[in-house]
Automatic annotation (TrEMBL):
InterPro entries: F420H2_quin_Rdtase, Split_barrel_FMN-bd. The lineage of its organism: Bacteria, Bacillati, Actinomycetota, Actinomycetes, Propionibacteriales. Pfam families: F420H2_quin_red. It catalyses: oxidized coenzyme F420-(gamma-L-Glu)(n) + a quinol + H(+) = reduced coenzyme F420-(gamma-L-Glu)(n) + a quinone. It comes from the Bacteria. Belongs to the F420H(2)-dependent quinone reductase family. This is Nitroreductase family deazaflavin-dependent oxidoreductase. Gene3D superfamilies: Electron Transport, Fmn-binding Protein, Chain A (2.30.110.10).
């Protein structure tokens, strides 16, 4: 089921620009986080407070058709804003290049979280340093095709 609502572009310039380029070129441009060569996907979620559609690039961490959204926020003390969106509205749309599908979201814990954390760090080693920079346990969200 496609998400419906009014799209509210991010107030953060690099996020807005990255999403615009990604969508306009099916991930051929805007397909990486600024300053990296690592690929991203774009996730559309429903805003937890506004109800507006929000789009965010997240690092592409995929395994067997499921994707992981790592709420690292670069190791900052607070979760990224999209965490509340996922918790309140656990259905999102994910675009990986030209492919766009609906996914169910669930927050991971325990052994499953540890398994996916190891996969995330193997995919993007910088996650380990982000965890070292913060006292919070970085939330992990598994996105599975609906």
């Amino acid at each position: 089921m496609a998400l419906t609502g009014t799209y509210a572009p991010s107030a953060t310039g690099w996020v807005r620009k990255n999403v615009e380029e990604y969508e306009a070129t099916n991930g051929e441009k805007g397909g990486t986080l600024p300053g990296t060569s690592y690929p991203v996907v774009v996730v559309t979620s429903v805003g937890s407070s506004s109800g507006n559609l929000r789009k965010n690039p997240v690092m592409r961490v995929e395994r067997d058709g499921a994707y992981l959204a790592v709420a690292s926020n670069g190791g900052r003390a607070k979760d990224p804003a999209w965490v509340d969106n996922y918790r309140k509205h656990p259905e999102v749309e994910l675009q990986d290049k030209a492919e766009k599908h609906t996914y169910r979201v669930r927050e991971l814990s325990g052994e499953e979280r540890e398994d996916w954390w190891q996969h995330a760090v193997a995919t993007w080693p910088t996650y380990a340093s982000y965890q070292e920079k913060t006292d919070r346990l970085i939330p992990l969200f598994l996105l599975e095709r609906a």
